[in-house]
Amino acid sequence: MKIVIVGGGAAGTRTAIELRKRDRNSEILIINEKNYREYSPCGMPFVLSGDVKNFEALQTLDNKFYEKMKIGIILGKKVKDIDFKNKKVIYDNTEVDYDKLILATGSYAFVPPIKGLDSESVIVFKDIDDAKKIHEKMKKIKKTVIVGAGLIGLETAYAFVKNNIKVTVVEMLDRVLPVMLDKDMAEIVKKHLEDKGIEIYLNEKVLGIGEKVKTDAREIEYDLVVISSGVRANIDLARKVGIETEFGIKVNKKMETNIKDVYACGDCVECMDFITGKSIMSQLATTAVRQAKVLAENITGRDANFAPVLNTSITELFGLEIGTTGLTVARAENEGIKVITGKYRGKTRPEYMGGEDIVVKIIADEKGKILGSQMIGKSLVGRIDAMCLAILNKMNVKDLANMEYCYAPPVSQEFEPMYIACEFVVKKLR
Amino acid sequence: MKIVIVGGGAAGTRTAIELRKRDRNSEILIINEKNYREYSPCGMPFVLSGDVKNFEALQTLDNKFYEKMKIGIILGKKVKDIDFKNKKVIYDNTEVDYDKLILATGSYAFVPPIKGLDSESVIVFKDIDDAKKIHEKMKKIKKTVIVGAGLIGLETAYAFVKNNIKVTVVEMLDRVLPVMLDKDMAEIVKKHLEDKGIEIYLNEKVLGIGEKVKTDAREIEYDLVVISSGVRANIDLARKVGIETEFGIKVNKKMETNIKDVYACGDCVECMDFITGKSIMSQLATTAVRQAKVLAENITGRDANFAPVLNTSITELFGLEIGTTGLTVARAENEGIKVITGKYRGKTRPEYMGGEDIVVKIIADEKGKILGSQMIGKSLVGRIDAMCLAILNKMNVKDLANMEYCYAPPVSQEFEPMYIACEFVVKKLR
């Protein structure tokens, strides 16, 4: 069998690896538009910050690995067409046969309509080339403006501060991390960032970049502007060849497109939201990795389904972890779902052991079924994953309020913050 | 209503507090055999180690709190009899009326049959008086022997090492933390402790304490011997007055004993094991706290049930966290349950971010239903709680193997160790 994968990012590369784990004989070929192999895009801000020593460290798979796994890879070639009838992928003047085709074309940076983007002092931050440009500029600049207060924007802001560069963040919406957090939780993060010296302007639109960055409320001095206003699915190729798309490529549970023997995964596909049942994007490395496994199972003759998602995610900014899973209140209200919330502010460990601050917000429907959770503080990783499991199991806050948990003074509290927050919801339900 | 609580430890005190939260008017009286108010017994080893500055810090509720909450407390009085017919509790020559009675008589230290225990240089470690004695002795000694490698034994060993005292631990069973861990996992902990200079002898029985500590294999020099060989339910009073007991007080889901208006909770009661359905002990602070809530709900006219338990627990020894939930392989085999296990050794975070070691073991039945998990490493708190939720929801490793999780390089891996371990089980199921 000949398997061709269009795209060599996390989704494409993981698919190749998961396929090879299950199938020793098939030919596997990645065709990547970019001139480099897979790296960890999530790690880029931490190279900029100095936490990771260089960009090479983000490329954890070396050439030998591809050779050993017998994964072919063509770099710097853009697939321009697909001939479904004859099962061929076309780039330049070359045709490549396939039995199974996987589109892992990823995403591109959304760029808001701002005047003056063509300046050398403006970088749209999406991939490692952009990161390297920022890294180079960093050595020479004193003040920067970041457009967009999403994950990448704030992680980049953190990196600039670590390099003693003044940072101003301008966000069009009413809060930082608007996809992850409700306004009350986002305020905690905003204050934390402001305490570290970051200037943040919300509800503010950047109109143009000239001598200064001009917003609808002020002018801001800068040496460098970084645009990080979110990403969109890369679906030009899919659209051109007649694969069904809307804001992403449409796939079924098996990761199949509407064309026989053509699959898709990663940032370019739409997923199903677990709670609303609607199509949403899930442009997370974890989603790509998980879809790659489903794809590999199905292509190698097993039967696997990709489950609806909660878009569970996390970050850390100046030592403060921020995590989320499921619906925010804002999104629930958009969907017409009435919610009840509980919020616990406490400590991760007993005061006498020097416990750190933690805030947990729980969002439930009117019957108490848990729909979402947001957390800010320390030791969040497993807790976010626990609430993800609770939502997927359609658990009720009544059961969670007195749930079993682990406790020892060096690591946790006699009371688990997650479940206290659930108890607060239960009280409101009465 | 007059509510009398026999026992002023975690279970009794939490019951009083939870009752008061729900009922402003009833009289609430705690009668405590000990001469002091509630403190955190789990914190004791960390005072000995110096991580917590003094024993007073473990007593988080002061006299004012009891006054403010209108919780009466009688200290240093042992209840000798109960008159169910006339609803009276009797201590000394005093009778106290009750409408509702709660037995929270806790547990006592099991002392193995060893000769020479009556020496001044031997301390059976159970409560804060014992801890204070050890604390006092610590200043003068150079070498100590700990009998029992359970949680308290090892936490105390840690405390001695922190005070530059040589420690030898003697354990009758074939591994450390035998309740929490299987042998393969326990070996990791043993090696970690040995690396810190602790001498550990397994499969070895202490026969007597004289000039030296004599085991069935050797003689060990000592200045102090600490006995920490587990605890047993304190059920003398219950037995005497005809309350149903076996190895603990028998209660139903509502925490009622077989006698009308008499309840029990905490270390003195039996619980139901979630997986086997059998009676087990759950002598954890978290269990006491959770039972107190159920009790308070039921006494104040609501309807609550205490759910079967997994005995989820955790500790930290020299920076290494050790957690468990559900069945160990050893316990499963004792119950005649055939199991399949998966074990993942990896990192909490990417190598390029300086990830720390983590080992996760997953135990499932032959159909893949998850029954237990053991973990050693860092950032375990929420992860253990997540696996606890997975077991209680009767999840299958097939679903967990490709489960959603959170990821960001500063805090976690692109692959979640819990779910990789589940994937290993899935592979064995095929």
Fold and architecture overview:
- Two copies of one chain form a homodimer.
- In chain A, 53% of the residues are buried.
- The model of chain A has no long low-confidence stretch (mean pLDDT 97).
- Chain A starts with a strand and ends with a helix.
- In chain A, strands 3-2-1-7-18 form a five-stranded parallel sheet.
- Chain A has helices at residues 10-22, 44-48, 63-68, 128-138, 151-162, 183-195, 236-240, 285-299, 329-334, 381-392, 397-400, 417-429, and strands at 2-6, 27-32, 71-75, 79-83, 88-91, 94-97, 100-103, 107-109, 122-124, 143-147, 166-170, 199-201, 206-209, 213-215, 219-220, 224-227, 231-233, 262-264, 270-272, 279-281, 313-317, 320-326, 339-347, 357-365, 370-377.
- In chain A, a hairpin with a 2-residue loop joins strand 5 and strand 6.
- Chain A has three domains: 2-107 and 232-299, FAD/NAD(P)-binding domain, CATH 3.50.50; 122-227, 3-Layer(bba) Sandwich (FAD/NAD(P)-binding domain), CATH 3.50.50.60; 320-429, Enolase-like, domain 1.
- In chain A, helix 1 (10-22) runs parallel beside helix 8.
- With 430 residues, chain A is of the alpha/beta class.
- Chain A is built from twelve helices and 25 strands.
- Chains A and B meet through helix 8, strand 21, strand 22 and helix 10 of A and helix 8, strand 21, strand 22 and helix 10 of B.
Q: What can be said about this structure in brief?
A:
The structure is a homodimer of 430-residue chains. With 430 residues, chain A is α/β, with parallel strands linked by helices. In chain A, 27% of the residues lie in helices and 27% in strands.
